[in-house]
# Entry
Amino acid sequence: MTRLTDLKVSDRISIDSKYAIVYIAPGATNMCMGMDGLSTSIKNQFKLDPMKLNIFLFCNRKQDRIKILLWEKDGFVLLYKRLETGSFFWPQTANQVRPITPAQFNKLLSGSNDWQD
# Structure
């Protein structure tokens, strides 16, 4: 029997077909922001609706932490990942949110720096 702790993060957190697009927010995001702050940023800065079935990814300045915001049918879900060593390879072009594929999302969560391939 497989225990939850035996699974990789990408096995535990993966997207399914109900989510339309995974968006990555390049540049640094203030990690003090919670659900409300991030959803406001999505609306105001990126001109997108955070309540659509999309996933939004944000990273801190040191690139060792990410937040994942998504909308379920009854409210927001906020996930947080902190790397103990290393950093995420994160695009730095500010103010340009961009979509990534489900495969890229899963590679990113697994800690791979070649997720953009």
